[in-house]
Specification:
With 405 residues, the protein is an alpha/beta fold. It is 37% helix and 16% strand. A hairpin with a 5-residue loop joins strand 4 and strand 5. The protein is globular, with a radius of gyration of 21 Å.
Length: 405
């Protein structure tokens, strides 16, 4: 029998968060090496516990999750999601605009597949969570990466966005707050991007999974609030705000003129109904979680774990020669820059591997987030403050003598 070949569409798909270096780290663990996994934003790995609101919501409800539910999601869960987004400023939506999935990862594919013909283009930020670029490839499209400008605190570069629009461009992706930079976008930039989308008739995909994890007195503005006249697909979920990654509980909300998006919606309905339904047990907790504002607020306020862990990390990073960064004001990531001249770095994957074997710290290089230069890497700020501080010190010691070329 001939060798079974992988489909062509898979050639550009990459998963560096759990890619070759991750498996190398797993092999090191099997040999007894203690690896600090700063490759993934998985709070449970670092001792974040199930909120009481979630435990209470599940009590006595096991039988309710036994059968299939509505393919769009349980009625009370969709109602809670709708009310949450209306309260945050998205107008004109109802429960029928809500589709619940097994994490945002699943609903992204539901959103892209009915929209794209082969070769259609989607504007995706760089750097960005690789789910988006990968999902565009898998839907038959082409991700076109627009720059977020580090010198402008990682805000999207609207001139670069305009320069990359063609007659094949169908949509633009916003990740706000951003992963991997941990930066919240300004309302001014959002409005400028929406003006471009309005002019070019683009669908807007707004990934807002970190909207409840905003620090420093700042406030997140939902993209759809600023554009009731546009088709905006807002993605959100409970993985980060309530530390429920394993529950795989995400959703999308379609807003804007119904007539404009009706045919597209029917495509989404076909896909979600084929899937039958999302995990029912995770849906049971949605109303309680969205009513529980204290859990995410307590993590990002002064004295909270995420806030204090960020402070511990940046207080050390400031003193590491050859590293610069924009301090994050949301989520639990920081996208640090390396002085490639000082360290002779020409391959960020080699840097990440060298760091792993020298310090037992696993990170994801910038190329894993579709960044175009070998000069960045993402730091996940989920370990306890003292553990994170120690890791940054070890990283600095490693860099004191590091030279790649």
């Amino acid at each position: 029998m001939d060798m079974i070949k992988c489909a062509e569409r898979m050639k550009k798909v990459h998963s560096d968060i759990r890619g070759p270096l991750y498996f190398e780290a797993i092999e090191m663990e099997k040999r007894g090496v203690d690896i600090l996994k700063l490759n993934t934003g998985n709070p449970a790995t670092f001792g974040f516990e199930t909120p009481e609101s979630i435990k209470n919501a599940l009590a006595g409800q096991i039988e309710r999750g036994l059968g299939y539910c509505d393919f769009r999601g349980m009625a009370d869960a969709r109602h809670a999601i709708c009310e949450y987004h209306k309260k945050r400023g998205i107008a004109g939506i109802n429960e029928d605009d809500v589709f619940i999935g097994n994490g945002v990862s699943e609903v992204v594919s539901f959103a892209l597949t009915p929209l794209l013909n082969d070769g259609d283009e989607v504007l995706v930020p760089s750097p960005s969570y690789s789910l988006w670029g990968n999902s565009v490839y898998l839907a038959g499209g082409k991700p076109v990466f627009y720059l977020c400008d580090e010198k402008a605190n990682w805000q999207p570069d609207c001139d670069d966005i305009r320069s990359k629009i063609t007659n094949r461009t169908k949509a633009i992706v916003l990740i706000n707050p951003n992963n991997p930079t941990g930066v919240l976008y300004s309302d001014e930039v959002l409005k400028e991007i929406l003006a471009i989308a309005r002019e070019k008739r683009l669908v807007v995909f707004s990934d807002e999974i970190y909207d409840r994890l905003v620090m420093d007195g700042l406030k997140h503005t939902p993209t759809a609030e600023l554009a009731p006249d546009l088709t905006v697909v807002t993605m959100n979920g409970l993985s980060k705000s309530h530390c429920l990654c394993g529950y795989r509980c995400g959703w999308m909300v379609i807003s804007g003129p119904r007539k404009q998006s009706e045919e597209y919606r029917q495509g989404i309905i076909k896909l979600t109904s084929m899937r039958l339904c999302a995990n029912t047990l995770s849906q049971i907790v949605i109303p309680a979680a969205l009513a529980d504002e204290q859990t995410p607020a307590s993590m990002v306020s002064k004295g909270g774990r995420i806030y204090e862990q960020r402070e511990a990390a940046v207080n050390v990073l400031h003193y590491i020669d050859g590293i610069s960064f924009v301090k994050n004001n949301a989520a639990f990531y920081l996208f640090a820059k390396l002085d490639t001249n000082k360290f002779g770095i020409v391959d960020d994957k080699v840097f990440a591997r060298d760091l792993l074997h020298a310090t037992n710290i696993l990170i994801v290089p910038g190329s894993g987030f579709d960044w175009h230069k070998p000069d960045h890497f993402r730091i996940v700020m989920l370990p306890e403050a003292d553990v994170l501080k120690d890791a940054m010190i070890r990283m600095g010691t490693f860099l004191d003598t590091y030279k790649q070329k």
